[in-house]
Amino acid sequence: MLMRNLVFLTVFTILFLSVEMVNACVDYYVQAPNFNYDPQSLSPTLGVTTINITKFTCPQPVYLRINQGNSSSYQNRHMNSGSNRLKYNFYVQPNSASSIWGDGSGGTYTQLISGATSINLYTIIEAQQNIVPGAYTDAVNFYFAP
After folding, report:
1. Which of 10, 70, 129, 134 is at a distance of 20 to 30 A from 40, taking alpha carbons?
2. Alpha-carbon distance 122 to 91, whole Å?
3. Are 49 and 121 in contact (CB under 8 A)?
4. How confident is the model at residue 23, as a pLDDT?
5. Rounded Cα gap, residues 121 and 132, in angstroms
6. Least confident of 11-20, 25-34, 80-89, 115-124
7. Is the pLDDT of residue 132 over 90?
8. Is residue 12 classed exposed, middle or buried when 0-12, 13-18 and 19+ CB atoms within 10 A define those classes?
9. How many CB atoms sit inside 10 A of residue 84's CB?
10. Mean pLDDT of 34-43
11. What is the pTM of this model?
């Protein structure tokens, strides 16, 4: 009998929530993709989230900072579906796990903003994670602060 490998597609969403710090002087919108994840793929799942700053009226430059979401550390970000976890992270460069976006602590990356611009956060979901099918989410806060 011929057996087929089943491929589970998992949709995940990262909810970007803004914390009002100096955000009153920054107008922006976020383009965040949804991903389909195949746990049998040998390659990580890649995506790009873009923060588009359309107006900047702050009296001084500010940093874009991002929290760890549901995770207890920046290095181990994960999304949840009930008690199940899917590992991922935001990186400064595509296809590179060297610089992780964060709040500047523990060597994480922030970016100084002084005007209208677009900023990419490259998402990498680790390959071949043993997960159950489901909708995985994370709530990530980002904010602009001196």
Report:
1. 70
2. 5
3. yes
4. 63
5. 26
6. 11-20
7. no
8. buried
9. 16
10. 86
11. 0.82
